[in-house]
Amino acid sequence: MFTNIAMVSQAGPELLEIRKLLRNPVLYTVREFLSLDDVNQGLLNYPFDVLLMRLGRFETAHVNLVLKVRQRFPNVALVTLSPEVRPEARYHLKDVSRHKLLLEPLEMFDLPQVIEKLVNGASSPTRLHPRVQRDGECELVDMEKGEKIPARFLDFAQLGAKLSVQPRTPLRKNTLYQLHYPSTTEPGRIQKIASKVVWAQVSSGMVGTIMKGPQQTLGLRFIAAV
Asked: How far is CA 166 from CA 4, 13, 153, in A?
């Protein structure tokens, strides 16, 4: 079943990246518009499931724009992308239903997964704290079994992180681990955070899984410092 996407965006390199992410004729049909007025005029010929809006800067004034769009299109999923987001604007979006705010470029590559969740009616609330780019080694520790699982940061935020792992057996959603990683401010200190796996997906193909074992991308939610 196709997901029909209406995208409102000006030209630019970011638009090219989004086109690449959505270039899947089995999953998506995409129509591009230069403005929301164009979307209104094109509704009769192109009913859509997702409205994707790109803004150069997302400020408090744009919250009303999102609310008006939600009122005008109550049954579609909404996704907003912007390279710069004011913190207070991010906070005021927290209660908008079926809407997701993504920060370019760090969160842009989450777009296919976000679209799938919103179209299927799953909750995908806007995070209140932006991600920061972070790279480096870390490990997940199963405190019951004593097992240590090497991992690598893909990004980091105040309330959670995204990791790449290659465990002996796939890790499951809702399981608990301690995340251990070197402090960036105190050399020699290991930070420890109790964490919950909130989503997990296989990120290696069949051949890679057979040759090296399952590689996964995990979303963690931080519970408490240890």
From this structure: 35, 33, 13
Task: Report pLDDT digits (tens) over 53-73.
Answer: 998 888 888 888 899 888 888
Nearest 5 degrees, angle CA 167-CA 110-CA 161? 50
Residue carrying structure tokens 């074992």: 213
In this structure, the strands spanning 28-33 and 3-8 are: parallel
Rg (CA), the chain: 19
Query: Tens digits of per-residue pLDDT, 157-179?
Result: 777 888 899 888 889 989 999 99
Provide the 10 A C-beta neighbour count for residue 99: 21
- Rounded to whole angstroms, the Cα distance separating 37 from 20 reads 25
Shortest CA distance to 62 belongs to which of 84, 77, 41? 84
**Amino acid, res. 216:** Q
The Cα–Cα gap between 109 and 64 comes to 26
Best CA proximity match to 225, nearest among 196, 195, 193: 193
Residue 37: which residues within 8 A CB-CB, separation 6 or more?
A: none
User: Which pTM value belongs to this model?
Assistant: 0.62
CA distances from residue 28 to 5, 65, 79 in whole angstroms, order as listed: 7, 25, 15
Residue given tokens 């409205």 in the structure block: 51
Tens digit of each residue's pLDDT (9 = 90 or more) over 110-131: 888 888 888 887 766 665 555 6
Q: Would strands 99-103 and 190-202 be described as parallel, antiparallel, or unpaired? A: unpaired
Backbone angles phi, psi at 4, to 5 degrees: -85, 125
